[in-house]
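Mods, move this if it's the wrong board.
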Amino acid sequence: MPEFHEIAIVGAGQGGLSVSYFLAMNRIEHLVLERGCIADSWKSRRWDSFCLVTPNWSIRLPGAHYSGDAPEGFMLRDDFVDYMEAWAKGFGAPVRTGIDVRRIGRDGSGSARFALETSAGPILADIVVVATATYQKPSLPAAARGLSDSCLQMHAEQYRNPVQSGDGAVLVVGSGQTGCQIVEDFLRAGQKVYLSVGKTGRLPRRYRGRDCIEWQAEMGTLDRTPDMLDSPGHRFRSDPHVTGRDGGATVSLNSFRKRGVSLLGRLRSAEGDLLRFEDSLGECIEYADEFATGVNESVDRHVRSTGRFAPDHDPRDDADDFWPPGRKANSLDNLSLSDAGIDTVIWATGFEFDFSWIDFPVTDSFGYPRTEAGASSEPGLFFCGLNWMTKRKSGILYGVGEDARTVAEKILKLRQEGSAPAAREFY
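Not the wrong board. Structure tokens:
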């Protein structure tokens, strides 16, 4: 007989563990299945020097709100993994690691139960929560296939530290948060870096005395709902670049330029040793700077409308972050890797989501789950931890607990309406 659990949660990251927490507080039997280990994506997909880009105070995991002595700090990768593991152990999360869930369908016996095909055999469940986050597999541009085999290539999820590359120059493709932080790694190692820039915004780390995330939380920016976006596709835009390293700092293309980074436009194609780039560098720089200006102006409006105190901004504080007026953004149309001394290319080109392993029509035209506060159109199938699931903060440590509570409440209601024993009042 297949193994049975009333509730199966797929994924032991912040989304899955948050739902597990609320179920555990209600003593509801469930099982969390994880392909790797607890907090696996944080542990296996982040490089050695990685740290959170949101301040420690914004860690709002249920039952584990940050209460340490560095609320304005930014937790390092290994410290955060330890934090997650201690949290899971503290509430007794029933996690089973090393199990890959390959398919979710219905039990073929005619019952209404879900059937999970896993690497450890079939598992049946009355209720399933998919908490595999938004991005599951690396995204590589077509140009990656045309690059010479003589050059070391790696996706950002494979990157750990500059030692992996040789002593030569490095080309980083992609200027979102990940790409810019990897550039910073190589700059500190004293290596020559080329950066192929995309159209990505940037966040000033601090403005008028406060961190940008604190301003966003106060102004309600993190509570924006998907219907407020200009296009549903904007849910998948890369995050503005910013860093929490060494206490947090603003990341800008102009500061990279001043530190010796060779900026290039968007990569168009690669043929052997030769790479060709679009004439887009100036446009991308302008977009990033305008994004930062827009963030600052929104804070100014908020200060004026609320009458709250905030110190005036001194333009000299961020003068090096903005591209100098009148300075031309020169960029190469093509580049020979060998001539430039580049022996490593790192693809910081993001990730793709894939929910094709779920045998129910619960996704939209993008292939992304459609939910009503986490509940799908398939009775008993829920999601949690998705980017923009209910709000901007849904996919981050600041907001995932709120969504998890809602999902757990829906599960509790479903159990009470069904044949399962009624649970006590929700925790």
